[in-house]
Write a structure and sequence with these properties.
Distance between the termini: 41 Å
Number of domains: 3
CATH class of the largest domain: Alpha Beta
Shape: globular
CATH superfamily of the largest domain: Probable tRNA modification gtpase trme, domain 1
Helix content: 10-25%
CATH architecture of the largest domain: 2-Layer Sandwich
Largest sheet: 6 strands, mixed
Structural class: alpha+beta
Number of strands: 20
CATH topology of the largest domain: Gyrase A, domain 2
């Protein structure tokens, strides 16, 4: 049975229509406002607070902490400086992705690890023979994402400290002055915008929420739910576990597995790093064969075709404001051969385009490649044209500023 997150006593009264969804055993707000586009606009034009406490969180410490991290993740952990954060996948022995998340190097022998799925057993199994301690701090640490163009201003208001020097994918400790609350702050997020994630002792979560909301009042801050977050992560070209790929732990057959090179994470694989890592040999063999049989690409759907599909049924054109996470067949242009599937798709309010992530055969992964996407109106199946475009769809300079 789901429970409220550490922020629930603050977020529940704000959820006007009581729209909740389950996230790792917690209630997560789908939307606070009458429509989630209000919250989307806060992320893109002002500032928003997003409760991300349900993320699984682990603290890895000890003499061999670095060795464990390097043994599990695909990136070269030996190059990670104290205060740096890696976004990375990790794989099983077949080179198939188990999960993806962030790894923070807090100190020489201390790391903080976040994941979408539970990873305690996997980390423990891979720690065999190492002098390392793994602590599950999921329930003792709350987390909130402060995102949007005014996120830095809000954080500086709340801490009275400058944060302009905290670069993209870096972290440091800080303190919220209201209540004297010690927090960790990372220059990370899942929106593709300027943003931070604030890591808070669970017993101070409600106070921290109040401090950030008060500091953000002059900047138009709003709470934002999962529907708005989903739109922004799609615009940013960010994948979602069990939507854009299936964890190797949950795959029912080999076809449901994905290597990092299949889901746009090839650049996060250091096959030449000094330390061996789980799945390395399998990934080397995959690359020697010419790469995986599927590739994740960004596509833009042709609006005129969408409009015609509705006109053929005597209806005005319409597209959902929320992201569709259902798999949709993708075909070679004008043919009957299915060459892939859309994994996530929806309307980008800022780009004014229908966009999606698609898993396709290698012959269709080049920029400009043409595809046909199945499109259903009132139970009638048709097709709309689509083209492979560069990702991320939305690349805001302030994201890295």
């Amino acid at each position: 049975m789901s429970i409220g997150s550490p922020f629930h006593e603050r977020t529940a009264p704000l959820n006007h229509k009581q729209q909740w969804r389950e996230w790792s055993g917690y209630w997560a707000s789908s939307a606070y406002a009458d429509a989630h586009d209000i919250e989307y606009n806060a992320i893109r034009e002002a500032a928003a607070l997003i409760d991300v406490s349900p993320l699984y969180k682990y603290r890895v410490t000890g003499r061999d902490a670095l060795a464990l991290v390097d043994r599990v993740i695909t990136r070269d952990a030996s190059k990670m400086a104290v205060g740096q954060v890696y976004y990375t996948p990790w794989c099983d022995e077949h080179g198939m992705v188990i999960d993806d998340g962030t790894v923070h190097r807090v100190a020489e022998d201390e790391f903080f690890w976040t994941a979408a799925d539970p990873q305690y057993r996997w980390l423990t199994l891979n720690a065999r023979g190492l002098k390392v301690a793994i602590d599950d701090v999921t329930e003792s640490m709350a987390a909130v994402a402060l995102q949007g163009p005014f996120a830095r201003a809000v954080l500086e208001e709340a801490t009275e400290e400058p944060f302009g020097e905290l670069r993209y994918f870096r972290r440091r400790d800080s303190k919220l002055l209201a209540g004297n609350i010690e927090v960790g702050v990372s220059r990370t997020g899942y929106t593709g915008d300027l943003g931070y994630e604030v890591w808070i002792p669970v017993q101070r979560a409600a106070e921290a929420w109040d401090a950030l909301m008060t500091a953000g009042r002059a900047y138009g801050i709003r709470p934002a739910g999962m529907l708005a977050l989903d739109v922004t992560r799609l615009e940013a070209g960010l994948v979602l576990l069990e939507v854009d790929y299936t964890s190797a732990r949950h795959a029912l057959n080999p076809e449901q597995n994905s290597s990092p090179f299949e889901i746009g994470m090839g650049k996060l694989v250091a096959l030449d790093k000094g330390a061996d890592f789980v799945g390395r040999l399998a990934l080397q063999r995959e690359q020697a064969r010419g790469g995986p049989a599927r590739r994740l690409v960004g596509v833009q759907l042709e609006w005129n075709d969408i409009e015609r599909s509705f006109s053929a049924r005597g209806l005005p054109p319409a597209i959902s404001a929320s992201v569709d996470r259902s798999a949709v067949p993708v075909y070679a242009p004008g043919g009957i051969r299915q060459v892939g599937k859309l994994t996530s798709h929806g309307w980008s309010p800022i780009l004014k385009q229908a966009i999606g992530l698609a898993s396709v055969a290698p012959a269709f992964d080049k920029l400009g490649a043409k595809l046909d996407v199945e499109w259903t109106v009132e139970g009638h199946r048709g097709r709309v044209a689509a083209a492979v475009v560069a990702m991320p769809f939305l690349d805001l300079p302030r994201k890295r500023a």
